[in-house]
């Protein structure tokens, strides 16, 4: 007598709908993390400003690599016009924060914030309480 065996093959497809579901789940988790960060650090009921989340990475940059420095890390000579132009061209590639509320998250620790940068129109400064204005002028 012969015995018959049944083979079951399980095939899992990584199709487009699964990838989209993963993307949605990841975006939802990121949004929840950001909301928790806002609740811990800022007034969560303040919806007057749109929050720009900024991703940064640390890169050491020497704008004038050809200028020698002394033992106190001071340059031994001023930069030449050509060196100034080269440094200016490097700085031109940077992204400037110009408006709104910008939150810079720590790339190494997603639960912490490096900086809150809030731009306020000059006309709106008079409506702020005076202690906030005093902070702007402190050294």
Reconstruct the topology from this structure.
Layout: H1 16-41, E1 51-55, H2 81-92, E2 101-105, E3 113-118, H3 130-137
Mind explaining what this structure looks like?
The mean pLDDT is 78. The chain has 2 domains: 29 residues; 90 residues, no CATH class. Strand 2 and strand 3 form a beta hairpin. The chain is built from 3 helices and 3 strands, in the order H-E-H-E-E-H. It is flat. With 139 residues, it is an alpha+beta fold. The protein has a 3-stranded mixed beta sheet with strand order 1-2-3, with no helix packed on it.
Keywords:
139 residues; 3 helices; alpha+beta; 33% helix; 2 domains; three-stranded mixed β-sheet
Query: Which structural class should the secondary elements be placed in?
Result: alpha+beta
Number of strands: 3
The ordered string of helix (H) and strand (E) elements is HEHEEH
Distance between the termini: 95 Å
Can you count the helices?
3
Q: What assembly state would you assign to the polypeptide chains in this entry? A: single chain
Overall domain count: 2
